[in-house]
Amino acid sequence: MTRNGTWTMGLPGCASFDSAAVLAPLSGVLYYLAASLDLMLREPDGILLLSPQHGVLAALFMTTRAERWWLIAAAVVPAHLLASWSTALPWWQLAWQALFSCGLATGVAMTLRLWLGQRNPFDSLREFSVYIVVAVIAGPALLTIFSPAVAPALLSGAPDLAIDRWQAETVASSLAMLTWGSCTYLALLPRPGWLQRRTPAQYAEALAIVIALYVCFRLTFVSDAENHAALYLFFVPLLWQSVRFGVDAAAMAVTLIATLAAAADRIPHSVRLHDAPQAAAIDLQTFLGVMTLMAVVIAIVVDERRRVAQAVSESDARYRAIVDSQTDFVCRSLPDTTLTFANAAICRYFGMPREQVLGTQWLQFVPEETRAELRQALSRATPENPIFMLKHPVQLPDGRTGWQEWVNTAIFDAQQRLVEFQGTGRDITALAQAEQALQKNDERLSLIAQAAGDVIYEWDIVRGELWSSSGDERSAGTPSVRHLNMESWGCCIHPSDRERVARDCRQALRGTAGTWESEYLYIGRDGDAPRWVRHRAYIIRDASGLAVRMIGAITDRSDRKNLEEANRTLERFARLAMLGQITASIAHEMNQPLGAIRYNAEAGLLFLNRGRYDKHEFQEIFDDICRDNRRATDLIGRLRELLHDHELRLDSVDMNDIINDVIKLLRIEVRQRHVHIDTECAELPTVLGDHGRLQQVLLNLILNGMDAMAALPETRRRIAIRTARVGATRIQVQVVDRGSGIDPATLPKIFDSFFTSKDHGMGLGLAIARSIVEAHGGRIWAKNNADGMGATLAFEIDSLGANVMLSSSGSSDRYGARLN
Amino acid sequence: MNAVVLLIDDDRRIRNSLGRLLRVMSYDVVEAADWDAALELAAEHRPDVVVTDLHMPEHSGVDIARLLRSHPEFGHTPIIALTATPPRDDETISLFHSVLEKPCAAEDLQRALTEALQTHKH
């Protein structure tokens, strides 16, 4: 049983009186004093008012373990004899009295022990009522029959006398149990520091109460004046002390008053209802008993309340200690964020005393720009969804910005009105800083990668996720995670390389290699300009050798210095590729003059061998040979023009002638592909242009048209070439095919480098055509035919050579700009 | 009497020079620039041998050879093809008595013609 949380009472009294050396003399002395008091209090007429020794003895037994009771009894008997020797009663009667006292006390103590166990009978009203029943009523009433005053009268056949004596003995014992019993019991309980815990003010208060009680006592029991009001006055200091000092003080006070009253010379009229001395004594005893009961009961109730309140405040303190010892934040706030509770962690965090924190709106701690957002978040709480998380910056007292994370619960009343917020939070500044640092690191990596012109990436093959420093300035500084697989990566590779690179890479991943390297034409995702890139990667494998990650860099190879060279090479390559398509035609064109020369020469030789010297014949032969030689030389020149990347050589050229030359050059091609070419040539002024280059433009346009019709039935493969004057000085050439037309989505792109919709081809022919036309100051375009059949590719140039760019580097730059 | 050679080539300068050579070789030469002229001249002059270019606009030497082969009168007239890009398939090659790479040496042409004429006579 715990009281004041300072000591624990096992078996009451055990701790103090366990040793026989203390218990026996203490019992003896206490009993001797009580018995002496009993004798002193007996009225001369033998009327008994109070038997203190019964109460004292009961208290002694109650506070001692049963095994030790014999020690008390052994001390009590001689003490009784000693105290009562002067009464001159026979020894056996004295011994009986002593044994009776012990019997009554053990009977009461044993019954209480059985009933209450080790509980203190003055702890609560329940226990006290047991005490009343056992020690105050039943014990004395039943056991007094065996007292030396009652039993002999009963045995000698004087029942009236026996009843009178029984009544007197019982009431005196009951009153003693109430007063001396409780007082002794409580006094014997070990209560270290009981006096020390009192303050001087309490001592003064106690003194005042004692004086008041004494005054009341004097007025009631000693004063001659019959003062009824004084009787009620008694209750004032008694209640006062019961409320203020508890059951110990109450028991002490009532014991003192009862004893003094019993010792008083007379029974005051104020308590006296009967005249007969015996009845008047009972009146006094009743008054004292009621007074005692009232004082003790009130004291017990008040003590109980006090203990409950103390337990509550202790548990509150413990709870608060737990909350305050948290490193996490705990707070409660009103709907307007005014704090009504904040634990120590919050106060420490903001470096403010609790009083200052409470009453502050916590939004004040948040940077201004974040407040509106938080207010909105708070307003979103509903009775259905009262729990929400917040993560926000806070202004720290040292001016820095910290970060906090909160889990808040909105509390609503029965009318669903928001009453308050409860929240637990923590400081996540370090976490936020780490996140920022990580992000900064990513940015830095990305910037380095951009500075190096590289794309650095990490590809999680298993999850199909890609982290890459996007090498493109639109998303500078923001590394992005995208989903990537072979297909989506393949889309970034030019179609001419796609198959090869994907195959190589798959092979490397399937094998055991730790690295992979390739070079290819990179076209990016959204129509970015193509670049030659070198792709190097490390392949990271799991324990079973399965490739799980790939970390690599894609380096741009087409740097500025190599660009023009690369472009020229590409252009030349494209031209060669184009010529490759028409080798049959070229061979034929070349063979015609060479053949003619040969036949003429052979004929001349034969003439000579046969001795025929026809001068006229020889003249014709040599003329023919010279002409055919020129023809061959012209052709070679044109091929050189087509093959070499010289600067624009401007001459007056006839576009219709150029068209005829090209058709001638394509003759064999046209026949083999079963294409029919119609020409509708208008009368044209000569234009200032490069014959070879313009041939090249036409060749590319016609070859493109022929390609577009490859899938058509032979009879429908027709190309029309039309020339026309536009305005005063411009001429227009149209190449119209009857193929399937151009996808409108790709229409704007078909003159871009490396754009191709064909399975073969590099996507350079039309790009080169555009760069040549633009170098001539003209423009080139494509459109689908109005009848839905095929497309028209057309270009226009100025006959006077307006806007011609004379420097080839100019053209190369323009071309280069596109390439890059 | 000299053998008659039908020379078919769309290129006038080839016709001039090759015709001249064949004449020096003592053949009678009739020259045609295309399919129509060739058929007309063949009917008129009944050539002993045909020398044709393979690559020509409209109808190629192969077309003409097929036509002659199926013709009741010229089915057995030997045809010599002159070409810069000789055909590779046997069916086409079988149409001709011989296929010469252009430009060919006079001796080769002479030999081919002689053989063709001998074959034809038998």
From TrEMBL, chain B:
Top-rank taxon, per record: Bacteria
Record-listed 4-aspartylphosphate modification sites: D53
InterPro entries per record: Bact_response_regulator, CheY-like_superfamily, Sig_transdc_resp-reg_receiver
Entry keywords, A to Z: Phosphoprotein
Keyword Calcium: no
Sequence ranges assigned to domain Response regulatory in this UniProt record: 4-117
Biological process, per Gene Ontology: phosphorelay signal transduction system
Stored Gene3D superfamilies: 3.40.50.2300
Protein name in UniProt: Response regulatory domain-containing protein
The species this protein was found in: Steroidobacter agaridevorans
